TrEMBL record, chain A:
Gene3D superfamilies: Glu-tRNAGln amidotransferase C subunit, N-terminal domain. GO terms for biological process: glutaminyl-tRNAGln biosynthesis via transamidation; regulation of translational fidelity. This is Aspartyl/glutamyl-tRNA(Asn/Gln) amidotransferase subunit C. The lineage of its organism: unclassified sequences, metagenomes, ecological metagenomes. Pfam families: GatC. Coiled coil: none annotated. InterPro entries: Asp/Glu-ADT_sf_sub_c, GatC.
Amino acid sequence: MAITREEVQHVAILFRMSLSEEDITRFQQQLSQILDYFQVLQQIDTEGVPPTSQPISLENVMRADEPRPSYPTEDILANAPLSERGFFRVRAVLE
Amino acid sequence: MELYDLTIHEAADRLARRELSSRELTQAVLDRIRQVDERVRAYVTVTEELALKQAEEADKRIASGNAAPLTGIPAAIKDLICTKGIPTTCGSRMLENFLPPYQAHVTERLLDAGLVMVGKANMDEFAMGSSTENSAFYPTHNPWDLERVPGGSSGGSAATVAASECIYALGSDTGGSIRQPAALCGVVGFKPTYGRVSRFGLVAFASSLDQIGPLTKDVTDCALVMNVIAGHDKRDATSAPLDVPDYTRSLIPDLKGIRVGVPQEYFVEGMDDDVRASIEAAVNKMEELGAEVDWEVSLPSTGYALACYYIIAPSEAMANLARYDGVKYGYSDMRGDSMWRNMELTRQHGFGDEVKRRIMLGTYALSAGYYDAYYLKAQKVRTLICREFDAAFQRCDVLVTAVSPTPAFKLGEKTSDPLQMYLSDVCTIPVNIAGIPAISVPCGFAPAEGGSASGGDGLPVGLQIMAKPFDEPAILRVAYAYEQATEWHKARPKL
């Protein structure tokens, strides 16, 4: 199953990641090969089989929605590339 | 015997008898790191000063009579488990300068037990890989043959235990990342049941598959570490609210009445003859020890597990990795003219090749028009794999297979062919798909194909023992009885 250059670029954009020209060429070839390998799953009959998203069945885990202390703002912002007055700072979102 | 070669239980006995101090033991391990890590490269960060300080505290605790079994024992932590204020890089440029503002649950537990941390172990970037060659910093080398890989993704953790650069280590296992490197480096590596150990503070890769576990020099040590790290934690909603048994009670040296199954599908095409012979010999040994062996167990969907995994794991990974945006923490590329452009550049330059490849696979598999054919189909196949294990565990207490179809391969041998690299996890992946526990224990040596640089005993082979969910005791019993009847775990590489 061959994937096109345009599809590779489209998938990268869906994830908000840019790729170099060489990345696109390499991924086009490698992803095509891997997607081909995935075709093996089409041989297996899964009619009426429910999907499993988590292997050990747990019920939903609930807790009371009560305020409680969290980490100090300065500790969290210590790893931020840019911050200002207790907030993360980013470039303009709207052009 | 050198101090750094001691197991946890041997060292703890000497510490308790006051024949040895944690300070001396820690210094011996730090000296060993200085002596061999230039060649092995198992560590991203060595925390010498911290280790010596913790060793002094441990000695005080031992003197006051409050020691626990792990008190004062030097350990390595895989570099994706958060250690407050100490770099936690995940083997990635993206987190090269990240200092966690909190401790992981397992780190907290070990600290309470008297941890001496000597360093953070190298790994494949974001735990994606089977050779530790995907580390953004440098590959780790196999202590049994420095021209070969240690396996991955917990390759640093496995190599540091094998090379006696620590007494034990923690790793994480999403598709074999503890067991495969343990096998390739000749140490014990355990992936507990999904939910048995809290992942709070573990940098997430694939959330329905990830699990933390120990890498140790023998099975007794494995039980000792499990006693500390297992148990419920409300900060990980998938952690199981179940009591934790004392795992050392499972260390029984006979196998009377234990039903061992050997699934035929795990003798895969392309399996090394010496690996196959070692596995068969190990099963025969179990029979001698009193086990009832069924050589004809069948898990027919095994051949589909790899494809199933390489759809599910990248899909979950792409959702988890979306948090790396260059805003909150980590690498940030600010050369763009907008927030969105910066995010695209941050990911292009912050992630390595394999991580990008898996993000691309996961994003593709979840995208409109492909979801049913890939992700949903894989989830249904997952159900079939789980059902087959359930049925097998009706008849068997444990299932025994190889961990890796081949011994350690050469550095660079598989880096240009991702699919070949993925195939090295063919025997370990079904375990994560089904969430069951499994161990790797040393079961022999295979002569190195194409020659061994060290010209030693050959390359280690690992035996995998699986059990039903939360039956870690069955695995530890079988692993212990087998280990006590053999000498493989006593071999150390010449460095």
